[in-house]
Amino acid sequence: WYSGQWDVLDENHPASELNSGRIKTDLVSSVAVNFVQLSTIAGTAVPSYQNSYAYCVLKDNVTVTGIENGFRAEYYFEDIDSTVPLEITLTDSGFSAAIIGEDISMGDEYWITSIELLPGFMAGDDRLEGYIFVPSGSGGLIPLNSGKGDLAVYSEMVYGDDAAIEEEEYTGESRNILVPVYGLKYGDGAVTAVISEGDTSARIRAEADSLTSSFSRVFSEYVTAITDSTTLFESNYENQRVIYGVEQRESFSDYRVDYTFLSGSSATYAGMAQVYREYISLESSAEPPQLYMTLYGAATRKASFLGIPYTKTFSLTTFDEAEEIVSEMNEEDIPVSLQYVGWNNSGIENKKVPSKFSPVGVLGGKSGFEDFDGVINSNDNSVFYDLDFLSIRKSSWGFSALSDVCKSIFNTRTPQYKYMRSVYVPVNTENPWYILKPASFEKAADKFFGKFNYQSGVSLAVIGDTLYSDFSENGSTRADTAESYKKVMGETAAGREIAVDVGNAYTYAFADRIYFLPMTNDGNLLFECSVPFVQMVLHGSISYGAETSSTLLDCIEYGANPYYAGIAADDSTLIETSFNWLGGTSYENWADEAKTTFKSYSEVYKDLYNKQIVGHSESNGVSQTVFEDGTVIYVNRTESTVSVGGIQIEPYSFGVSGGEQQ
Fold first, then answer.
1. What is the pTM of this model?
2. Burial 120-157 (b: 16+ CB within 10 A, else e)
3. Would you state the pLDDT for residue 230?
């Protein structure tokens, strides 16, 4: 393994001819910077770019000194009067590369928006077999010889886009990066990169080989400044003007990536998952199989009385109905892990910050809640009452929808919308909501848990997939927000079981359940297939559910508890409301399927729920999932019966061999 692909600089080497333009110096650079000119930022959003080989090394603007176990290189970009310090140190399993935040310097005229770290190190050409691993959703693989580099690139923030940046149109269902790790398998070896510091400010970028480059590569960027745009005179089409702004932090934290080398049978995405699992030191504490279920409690609709408009609260699933649904499952020996959404405050959609314990009256009120809570935790069930401490629509209970919410770079509140998926724009018939500042989020949680005298689990669903900055004066970074989340999970809600949705990695030290963990990547054109990377990291330690669209075969292959979501009420209840996204989810529509699916799943995983997944592969429509006790699950997604592992597997079915189930 070399720091860069140095053959591209040798005119006598085939790699030189197969790579042209900027990519040559990118592939041998240690760092590269994207930057904007502050005097012109308002008029353009496109950053300029320079890499360290062309703009520092060739200009003799690098200072190198020795440090313990490595060296420090300071790259001075003369054109923009900026310095980036990089430290490389050897470790027992590889090496560590760190950008030292406190020593980054920028001039008065230019501002660095991101720093690419080792952009040419994790690269492989099409001479050998291999792939790039990218942690999109469950995980995705990019072949080294796909030839799709002219068609697409992959570039996404770890833990998703910043929620303080307004989205003006719907861009489709996302599969965020949940874990700060990426990898490259090249021939008989592999390298795993774990972003060990600065993960909340990281972007992972992957490119495939193309007409101008024979290399596919993957690397990460340290995002030192978030950029945003806003439209002036939006209602006046002829005079509309888009202006841009850039975040200017007063200080920077360190950004570090740890690289681990693998060889032989461990040089796979399964081996990469094991590296990350060991890095975060997860313990074996998963729960036996349960049917994962989300039930929605109360909702609101517009109504009028004597011509006076008002908002009416109505029930979708009362406490009694929720108890009946769970009891029906229990009668068939199916334990339930219930996430109850919209039971408190004003229902599914917060108007007020839920800082008070206030069960919704139409669901049964406080007495109905107490009766429900008293019986729900029997028969191996578990319940997680959902609490959204982020969203606010109306000032009340000591929280202001004006001053307690995060601000954009332009010092305006950042609205959050529902989107009309047919035309990709916000729903203009409903008011937006806003996100509380991290400090106000902590305050709301403190108030609620100070009055919630029940020991049942809580669902802090939204913090599992939402990360944001606050750009107001004395605001907060994404790292600050993540720390607030950890404080609430580890201190404020301590002693309770905690559930989240989707499951960004900063929740893993605290979460007991993850509802609907992604089962695919985001569908980027570069990806050849999805892989259960995140599941291999978590299985046996944190229990998780599948997505609602998942089949039994998906659950079996990925070790995901079957998951269903819906309401007790008839679908007609949703007519002329803003909750049409719940259409078709009435319990009677999926009850029988849920029972059948869970029984099949539970029979397989009754002895595997606490076992690590140590291997996974797929070929010609047949996958195999390998567990630490030697059990292998084969899933056949073809139209033919296959013989594998000494057993016959019918079309669209599965088989189990080895381990304790032999």
1. 0.95
2. bbbbbbbeeebbbbbbbbbbbbbbbbbebbeebebebb
3. 84
